[in-house]
Design brief:
By secondary structure, the chain is mostly helical. It contains twelve helices and no strands. 74% of the residues lie in helices and 0% in strands.
């Protein structure tokens, strides 16, 4: 059985789960404050940023710092619990398929779920910008390609973070501990992005990336810059390390 077949099976398992509903609910909740407080965007012109750019960036900052990472923490735990709740993992492990393939298939599902939520958030942005525009009588809408570019930056920078959350959900068998550690790891991002060594903490990557984009759009605001070295090499090493640990740990508890 190849990776594609296994991935298809994994998608079938979550078809009736509440994961997509949870991701959609979080995406909707994210933009409600932006609509209600749309008038505050006009006060940010002193920072050299237009109201429409501020509307997008403020929403994406909330997504990158907490809403998106928290949703992924919950998603990783739900993915593992789909197997453990009905002891389905034992059936999967009995198949003539290596644990590396099984683990890889599930991680692909997680990557797709992450991309799906970011697409949901991006799509709801356009609806929110339209609603806020009607309320404030101002055009908050930005070009779709620009918005998608910012969304892609967040997604790509979050892959090491996703690998870490996936490792937690596999290695820690108690869901509440896995969720607790995952959520706790998000909080320091606010502090880490203000240091020169932000690249050592993968959970801060999405937040740092969108913060630097904020600095580019706000002419009077000074922010850091994304240095590809040592960030990219370290991000690759961290992702591979977490994935290797996850594959080695996958199914070990159930085999005992």
């Amino acid at each position: 059985m190849n990776i594609l077949s296994l991935t298809g099976i994994e998608f079938g398992k979550i078809r009736r789960s509440k994961i997509l509903l949870i991701l959609l609910t979080a995406a909707v909740i994210l933009w409600i404050p932006s609509i209600l407080n749309a008038d505050l965007n006009f006060g940010m012109q002193a920072e050299g940023i237009s109201p429409e750019n501020n509307f997008l960036i403020q929403g994406f900052l909330g997504m990158a710092w907490f809403m998106y990472p928290a949703s992924m923490v919950v998603s990783t735990v739900l993915l593992t619990q789909t197997e453990r709740s009905n002891r389905g993992i034992l059936k999967m492990l009995s198949l003539p398929v290596g644990t590396f393939k099984l683990c890889t298939a599930k991680f692909i599902v997680l990557l797709v779920l992450a991309a799906s939520q970011i697409l949901m958030i991006t799509g709801i942005y356009f609806a929110s910008a339209a609603i806020a525009g009607q309320i404030q009588q101002y055009d908050f809408m930005l070009p779709p390609l620009f918005v998608l570019k910012e969304a892609v930056y967040i997604y790509l920078s979050s892959i090491p973070m996703l690998a870490f959350f996936w490792m937690l959900s596999v290695c820690i068998k108690t869901p509440i501990f896995s969720v607790g550690i995952g959520l706790a790891s998000i909080v320091p991002s606010v502090l880490i992005i203000n240091t020169k060594a932000w690249w050592i903490y993968p959970m801060a990557y999405p937040f740092y990336v969108i913060t630097t984009e904020y600095g580019k759009l706000a002419s009077h605001l000074s922010t850091g810059e994304v240095a590809l070295v040592p960030w990219i090499p370290l991000a690759i090493i961290f992702t591979c390390f977490c994935f290797m640990i996850t594959c080695l740990s996958f199914g070990q508890h159930e085999r005992r």
